[in-house]
Description:
- With 456 residues, the protein is an alpha+beta fold.
- It folds into two domains: 142 residues, Tumour Suppressor Smad4 (Sandwich); 286 residues, no CATH class.
- The chain is 56% helix and 10% strand.
- Strand 7 and strand 8 form a beta hairpin.
- Helix 7 crosses helix 8, helix 10 runs antiparallel to helix 11 and helix 12 packs antiparallel against helix 13.
- The relative contact order is 0.08.
Amino acid sequence: MNGDALPNAALRQVFRQGSPAVSYPIDHERPLVLGRDPEVCQIVLEVIYGMVSRRHAEVRAVMATQGSLGRGWWLCDLGSSNGTFLNGQRLRGCHLLNEGDRITLGPEGPEFLFEMEPVTLPPLESRARYREDSRALALADRSAVRSELGDRELTLTQLFPIFSGSVNLGQKAYLVPAIITVSCVVSLFLAEGNPVWFNSLLSGYLALAAYYIVYLLCGKAKPWWIPLCSMTMTVLLLRSPVLTLFIQVFREVLPGAVPTAQESQNFPLLLMRMFFGAGLMEELLKALPLGVFLGLGYGLRSPWRERWGIREPLDGILLGAASAVGFTMIETLSYYVPEIIQSTQMQSGEALGQLAGLQRLIPRLLGSICGHIAYSGYLGYFLGLAVLWPKRWWVIVLVGYFTASSLHALWNAMGAVSPLLLTFVGVLSYAFLAAAILKARALSPTRSQNFATRLK
């Protein structure tokens, strides 16, 4: 070992019940990750350690100064749920390790001692070596934990976990979505026999579920009433003379007339009509509420502009998707469902008409995440990107507008060719949205506060 190299180091796991300690050598070339995920962790802890995250912490070698990290062995918390403790103090970010430091993963979790210059440990050769060591320790590890638990008294919170103060149902157990789901189920029972209320409740729940997926992927918290305002503004636009004006411009002045059932036309002509009459028109209509939030982002002072306005791509995606929810619900409940109910009732009676309406409602709302939500969320990404790059805003906005409109037109036109091809277009649209979300998270000025970065 030359004079410039760091001394060899290892983590020694210690057990409270006198089980033999086991040392894990730390490689100089790559970090040693501790957690419960066997795919990425070199020290894999048993699932009995519920306080340990999938990727909890890591120890890395820094050979030369890197930003705020000086030369040495560093311990870094990886955004764990229950924290990493160094000598009894909760770790924030990274900390330089010294000989004899005690590392604890979560409150009363597994403990490790940091040791340097281990005499009997050869250098690490591969990640598989760590996994083999971890599996070999599994039985002894579990036995030690169970022995320790056996010496304690049975507590009330173990018998009734609901009373445990450490159980965070709101953040870790999706309590709010569960409340909404149960409330919707009870409301659907009460709405039996009233098709209008039943369809409205079901469509609202399915649309909210699709939006919630986008919210979880984005990982940025916004006040709940901000997306609601975006959705409401779109609904009001669809009920106003603005819709009539848009139809006149895009479907009468421009070549976007919706073809009738009797018309027969080739695919390129149909695609062009859908591009103007559906893509450009509807995407612009759904983007109008986002202009209000762009104004708030520029007009208000911090921190209100970050909370209420569009200041980055994630804001645009969230508010664009919310606008699409309002559009999808109005379009489905006011046009598609009544149309198929009426046409079916004339031929087969009221019962089959209501069934046909339900069969049209469910796939339209389930598919909104790869339809209107995908198009508007994708366009919202570009509106937020334009805030970050104001000198090129017009190029950015036009690229997003035409791309979203093209995806929209492709979906509408492809159904006339083969319904099976809609699968490809739907997956493509969702892929565009997902890629925009991942890029938006990488560009986010508030990335350190993002709760979805663990999905990388």
